[in-house]
Amino acid sequence: MSSLSSSSPKHHQLYAAWTDEELVRALHQDDSLAFAEIYERYWELLLGTAYRKLSSREMAEELVQDLFAALWLKRHTQEIQTLKSYLLKAVKYRVIDVLKARLTQTAYLEHTRLHTTPEDHSTEETVAADDLSLALLASLMTMPEHTREVFRLSRLEHQSVPEIAVRLNLSRKTVEYHLTRALKALRVSLRDFLTVVMLGLWS
Length: 203
Description:
Layout: H1 9-16, H2 20-28, H3 32-54, H4 57-73, H5 83-115, H6 123-140, H7 145-156, H8 161-168, H9 172-202
């Protein structure tokens, strides 16, 4: 996409002064510079929106790049009334698709756990479990360092509050504060998953 932004400063200033409606009309007429201006105008907003929901910059960047690629490829057929609203709605639905994929994977792993014997461990299940662990780690990385460490010791190493307090040289109340904070953050991040589930039940 960077090549689209290599126009002269004069052209850049010209397109930067255009309204969204003018840019959309130019986009329908195959104007790549208008497309480049849309990209520059809304890239940061869309990336931030996707990142807040996915907690993965790499995944958010890939999602937004795909969105802009689709915007250009379907420029003759898309009905765009309000550009900003259109792009934000497009990000929303793409994020929901990603969350649905995550939810499906989680449900599959739980089903597999309940319906297989302890000796049944295929390569595919191991890879899926590894992917789930990476997703969990990515979510934990969004937490402050102390909060993340308290959660890791409590939930992954199964240490008690007193044990964590001694290990980190913190008071028990401080440990409980960080643990509560971590669980609250996870509940917020899981809210999207629950929303997807409810949408599926009512669809």
